[in-house]
Amino acid sequence: MANANKPMGLTPHSYLNGTRWTGQTTVYYVAASQSTAIAIGDPVVPTGDSDSNGVAGVTLATGNADVSGTTGYILGACVGILGNTYPTAPTSQFAAVKVPASSSSAYYIEVCDDPMVVYEIQEDSVGNNLAHGDVWNGFDLVSAADNGYVSGWMLDSSTGGSSNKQVQVLRLVQRADNAIGQYAKWLVRIIAHPWNAPVSPF
Hints:
The protein has strands spanning 11-15, 26-30, 38-39, 43-50, 56-60, 76-83, 98-99, 107-112, 117-122, 138-139, 141-142, 154-155, 167-172, 185-190. By secondary structure, the chain is mainly beta.
């Protein structure tokens, strides 16, 4: 059975120690000047500033970007859109399906930002498909438009290498509906995480 072509960006799966992801997130600020929409599953990166209350700012990460100097870093994945005001109490209610591009208002989003989290992501299969020998290799991500609800970002299957990459492939997602080949889903960890960066990414 062929793998379904259903990209969802970076989806938190587990931790490097094998335990399932607990759902823990951090709230970040997205300025109204953000020029690109942010959907669930999109990777984000620190902006180097904050809102007036000191809530750290993020923006959409850069795809197809080997890590060099201050570019290519990924803080984590957006997993929830909380709305235009900082939540003063825990909430399970999401206020929007995504942060619109060039919004007239700021937004607050929940981000899975733990560098020890493992994510599921679909490969784009452009140029070639990943093979079993690509496990442990580094790859970049490729940006793509969301479907109105969730991210269209994927693993760039033609960027494999051993250094300066955004994520590391750990293993194939072991599921009956997934196999090595076109549009396969893989488990990856972010290796270009700003908390592990040798230089400031902003």
